[in-house]
Amino acid sequence: MKLIIAKDYEDMSAKALEMMKGVVVHNPYAVLGLATGTTPLGLYRHMIEDYNSHGTSYAHIRTVNLDEYQGLPKNHNQSYAYFMRENLFRHLDIEASNTYIENGTAQDEQAECARYNKLLAEMPRDIQLLGLGSNGHIAFNEPNTPFGSETHVVDLTENTIKDNARLFADISEVPRKAFTMGIKQIMQAKQILILASGANKADAVYKTVCGKVTEEVPASVLQLHPNCILIADKEAASKL
Ligand code: GLP
Q1: Is the per-residue pLDDT at 151 higher than 90?
Q2: pTM over 0.90
Q3: Mutational pocket test of ligand 1: of 79, 87, 140, 152, the residue with most ligand atoms within 8 Å of the beta carbon
Q4: Is any atom of ligand 1 closer than 6 Å to the C-beta of 112?
């Protein structure tokens, strides 16, 4: 794993743009694996600014997202589909039909997981963007998820529900379950870019980079990926 320490959140986001833009410019037909959360917001802002000022086109780009809350329709303002549309897609020239995410309201969960697995197999990702949970989760793969996992439905841990509650009016509104891409599929991306910002990620960053590779810390699996870059700001890197 290659580690880049950024000065702050802004610097982390600017450095992430360079990598993401590199992929898009090199291959205008690339498949981008995208993530939600507050961490990638700065990168998305930079992508929009870059599109507006330099015209970097996403007209032929396809995207697949990591995860979606179970039970939230795509127009719900806390769904990850809504997040992606509002914070990125509607500001670029990307086709909405080229953006993929799990259907949070699918009645048949197993069929939905199978559909997503098939889609991921058909669309190898050129780059997979990741945030990092404070407990070391990636996407919604919580501690002790098997490294061989594919798309599945998870019961979110209390830790994650608490972390994510800040984005909801009340903790009782945070969904208890989610669809997530599996760890095996995250690892299949040609390149992985993981971002971490802030002191509350310092423990997870330390375990991701220096800890032993264990299912107890899902992100530690990234040590085994041949082309993974972690960009952490100073606070997130403070325990290294
Ligand atoms: C959620 C998402 C993860 C994300 C994590 C960290 O649990 N499912 O993909 O990495 O939150 O979020 P944040 O970037 O807001 O700290």
Answers
A1: yes
A2: yes
A3: 140
A4: no
